[in-house]
């Protein structure tokens, strides 16, 4: 036909780093800058993802630490939804084993890193030492002639957040992120949980195409028909477009983080594909 329309899409950013270095705190601080979160009036969100809309109108999708296992699962399928990793390193603690693990995950998945040196408010903070440690681990920092951006932040004092968002946007611009909007969705699960009333729920991110309510889907080895799609603030929506996290309802079983979502044309086909995958 006329050729599917390819349009710019938001960057999908995952926060990684050593235990207690402030990943969740940093996300909470960033979330507060989110227009959507403000509109939701501080209602506790179950969705492990949110979108920050910049004053310029540009958007960034943040994924709440899905854990290294989920990241690895997505990488193993060659289908990382993550465009950029924020590597959080506490300015007092410095580089620790899980910092290195996160670095190697990102490298293996070929995902660029933006470093956030966190807890810069602490008296024992030593960001220069952290930079040297990272450099000695082979990270090519911008200020040393490489291309990895480093930002100093405090999730608690909420400093450096604008710089971090700017760095992410700059990184995203260099990547020229685009996606096909029309046609069947190719999507991935980033998180799944069982809700007593609503059954299996999956947080999904569409990589290409559009996911539409009512469609029959195969999700990993599970199947179902999408009964409802909700955005990051819990609002019902008819469709999900690339890089916008959504929660989908209507699956027969609980999928796993990293599972792919494919759209099929009938319940019979969905059931058959799912059975085939379960045998493997
Ligand atoms: P895990 O998910 O358990 O790996 O931890 P995390 O990386 O998500 O760290 P979390 O946000 O839970 O923060 C760990 C501790 O560090 C908490 O007590 C936070 O209050 C504290 N913390 C986080 N960010 C900052 C910061 O910028 N400054 C200071 N002083 N404390 C911080
Ligand atoms: Na913690
Ligand atoms: Mg955490």
Automatic annotation (TrEMBL):
Coiled coil: none annotated. It is found in: Mitochondrion. Residues 8-178 form the Tr-type G domain. Belongs to the TRAFAC class translation factor GTPase superfamily. Classic translation factor GTPase family. IF-2 subfamily. One of the essential components for the initiation of protein synthesis. Protects formylmethionyl-tRNA from spontaneous hydrolysis and promotes its binding to the 30S ribosomal subunits. Also involved in the hydrolysis of GTP during the formation of the 70S ribosomal complex. This is Translation initiation factor IF-2, mitochondrial. It comes from Morella rubra.
């Amino acid at each position: 036909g006329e050729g599917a329309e390819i349009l710019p899409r938001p960057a999908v950013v995952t926060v990684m780093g050593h235990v207690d270095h402030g990943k969740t705190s940093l996300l909470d601080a960033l979330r507060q800058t989110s227009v959507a979160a403000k509109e939701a009036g501080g209602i506790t969100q179950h969705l492990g993802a949110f979108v920050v809309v910049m004053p310029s109108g540009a958007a960034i999708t943040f994924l709440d630490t899905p854990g290294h296992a989920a990241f690895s699962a997505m990488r193993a399928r060659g289908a990382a939804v993550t465009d950029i990793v924020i590597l959080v390193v506490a300015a007092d603690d410095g580089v620790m084993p899980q910092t290195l693990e996160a670095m190697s995950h990102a490298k293996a998945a070929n995902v660029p890193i933006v470093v956030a040196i966190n807890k810069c408010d602490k008296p024992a903070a030593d960001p220069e030492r952290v930079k040297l440690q990272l450099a000695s681990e082979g990270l090519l920092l911008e200020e040393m002639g490489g291309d990895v951006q480093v930002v100093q932040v405090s999730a608690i004092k909420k400093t450096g957040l604008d710089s971090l968002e700017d760095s992410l946007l700059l990184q995203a611009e260099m990547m020229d992120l685009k996606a096909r909007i029309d046609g069947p969705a190719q999507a991935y699960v980033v998180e799944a949980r069982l809700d007593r009333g609503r059954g299996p729920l999956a947080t999904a991110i569409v990589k290409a195409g559009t996911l539409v309510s009512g469609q029959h889907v195969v999700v990993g080895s599970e199947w179902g028909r999408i009964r409802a799609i909700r955005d990051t603030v819990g609002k019902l929506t008819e469709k999900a477009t690339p890089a916008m996290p959504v929660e989908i309802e209507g699956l027969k079983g609980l999928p796993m983080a990293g599972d792919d979502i494919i759209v099929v044309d009938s319940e019979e086909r969905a059931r058959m594909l799912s059975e085939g995958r379960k045998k493997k």
